[in-house]
């Protein structure tokens, strides 16, 4: 699905130099590389505070801790996402409220959010799934109207941006009150182990969170709040510093590959290609409306599972993200949920297939893959 080796070959000297610097400095925790990366990412995103941490799941959890969410508070998120999003809500004894998504963008449906809001609702967690921002116009409006926090799960969309209806453009992760991201190796900005970060423009919240990631310490050995231990290590920060300057060009490569995939699937009645919101397919100024963490098709003629098998047999990797709605997962089942409220997710889990997507895909590979898919789906 990803070609991390090929990508490494292209930045080998930068990465090796960066790691060597960390080794020579022997500051493996909270060293100068971590601070430098933090500053560089703040500049890239145009956000006041980046707080690095150990992974994207921690980042989400710490966002919720930082906002002071309490047991019993309801947190609305998408039924169609990676489990980490709902996991941390449950872990903090908050009440997860899963809602349906939109069929064309796979992102949380603002109409479903609105229906789910109660007096106990405290936050909305939109996940910018597969590299494209959720409908942040509608979500921010709802949040303002009902006085809710917005925590963006930006693990899949770093470098993406959202253009608001009034023309204003903001980077994913800088729109809500606070955001989390992951530097898991296969993410658009991945390190060579685990890593994550939290973003916010709120000075007080940033201060609270900086202490929380470090055992609740604001002054050495004074523990003011219950915190966690969640750090980005210096070697990972070194890798990320070498990769960050390439993020936009990596995202452009993904976008180019996505355009070629979609062109090849034009006119196929059983294959639905991913939709870009806020943006037309074709050359654009910065290609940041969708950064294609995944390129995900819907196969309409019930051949999805057979197609997965066929591609595997031919040695083409593919993935099903995600095969089970979160509300149907054993850990998150609840009598509060009504199947009738999840028509889209229940359908998508049977139809979606993600094709190989990375920065090193070439035309020949894309042609080979698209021919296999088209011939099989029509066969
Ligand atoms: C990857 C991912 C996470 C978790 O990130 P980790 O670094 O693996 O903990 C959270 N949410 C979404 C949507 C993700 O894709």
From TrEMBL:
Record keywords, A-Z: Pyridoxal phosphate
Active site (catalytic residues): 187
PANTHER family the record matches: 3-OXO-GLUCOSE-6-PHOSPHATE:GLUTAMATE AMINOTRANSFERASE, TRANSAMINASE
TM spans (from-to): none
Origin organism lineage: Bacteria, Pseudomonadati, Bacteroidota, Flavobacteriia, Flavobacteriales
CDD domains the record matches: AHBA_syn
Protein name as it appears in the record: dTDP-4-amino-4,6-dideoxygalactose transaminase
Family: Belongs to the DegT/DnrJ/EryC1 family.
Source organism of this protein record: Flagellimonas flava
